[in-house]
Amino acid sequence: MKLLQQEAINQLPKRERIKLINAITGIKPANLIGTVDAEGQENLAIISSVVHLGSSPPLIGYISRPQTVERHTFANIQSQGYYSINHIPEKLTEQAHQTSGKYAQGVSEFEACGISPEYLGDFPAPFVAKSPLKIGMKLREILPIPINGTVMIIGEVQQVAYQQEAMQQDGELNLSTLQTVGISGLNSYYRLEKLAQYPQVKLDEAPQNNS
Hints:
Blueprint lengths: L5 H5 L3 H10 L4 E2 L1 E6 L5 E6 L3 E5 L2 E7 L7 H9 L1 E6 L5 H6 L10 H4 L4 E2 L8 E2 L4 E13 L4 E13 L12 H4 L2 E4 L3 E4 L20
Antiparallel strand pairs: 1-11, 2-3, 2-6, 4-5, 5-10, 6-9, 7-8, 9-10, 11-12
């Protein structure tokens, strides 16, 4: 096993360091965030930092990178207050990855990357039509992270749409049924496969050590 101390990590070439640090946290959720600006211009961006923050109220957060360049997704959420989070199906990974390009303000990533938008009811932000799990979000809070200039966007779940066959009898979604993907590093995509499901932990039923 190779050991890298902090000094060695800091001395890595920038691109190599970015890839390493992005990968060491493991497989991250792969989502497309859909927004629209005040003029109705649609925007779509791939995000790998979505995280559950609580269920009552139902809150989800994600990290937006430093505002050193235009961040159309962040600007649209700030101005309009609504956005969508869409799981990425296996068959859409190439188009989804393309949304990470630095498109100009007037360009819709939906159109440029060959991804069809969809509107559900009167929700104001666009969803990804082919996504098997779509979440409608309302902005609740923006938390600056001064140490590196990023911000956490915190939203409250307004609606959820999913393929019905993925819902188990116990109320849990089987994500492998949805055939969605995860991300490692900057550009590696992985299938999700359910390995096991365990009951609620009881302290007198600890598994045996098999090391």
